[in-house]
Amino acid sequence: MSDFKTLELHTDPRGFATLWLNRPDKNNAFDAQMIRELILALDEVQTDASLRFMLIRGRGRHFSAGADLAWMQQSAQLDYNANLGDARELAELMYNLAKLKIPTLAVVQGAAFGGALGLISCCDMAIGTDDAQFCLSEVRIGLAPAVISPFVVQAIGERAARRYALTAERFSGVRAREIGLLAECYPAAAFEQHIEQWIDTLLLNSPQAMRASKDLMREVGNGTLTPALRRYCENAIARIRVSPEGQEGLRAFLEKRPPAWQPELNKEPRP
Measured between alpha carbons, how far is 184 from 182 in angstroms, rounded to an integer? Predict the structure, then answer.
């Protein structure tokens, strides 16, 4: 496990990882080091075959306040090519997160501004507190949410993305759920309990089937029907039916017993 300065990467013995943004004194704001460490952390997660899924969280009061002010001041002194290099590094992070093989769940409290919305949008799912605050704040400082924009549009749709990118309005966790950025939002006092419920739900599922389903959803996209997509879907179900986990899942269902990937759930329930 790498020795990160801006992150913590924890592996739970139940089979999932939690990637913590860990600059609480800076409200988990992005800088060049954090972006580079996030890329390295995702590489570690990608190569760990034991992991079923990953959570992304922020230490302290906020998920992430966006770009670090000192880093932005430094960027203002750079020429076009140096800024292009910074943009390519951020894009690598976003694309690597979006393409991660295992399911990803963003867990959001406090502020999630600017590039933080990119991280959330790149995840397969996101949950947050009712009072979380979201903002595509770039236009307020003369910039544009360029690198993250494809992922934000995929998450909330073109019309909502256009509104919030142009107005830089803040919106709540409740509004984020309404437009699809969050799957669910909860009162802050009960948030940790609901996070554990999401973890327990994901642990019920076949690790292989979740990976296959993530690949399937990426291939299906907006659902446009083509002969190639039909063949892909036919092959996908045939492959997973004859796979070891597919066979185990079918046998367990027919025999009315838990499948082998749920051993920890067969024991005494946790208090």
Answer: 5
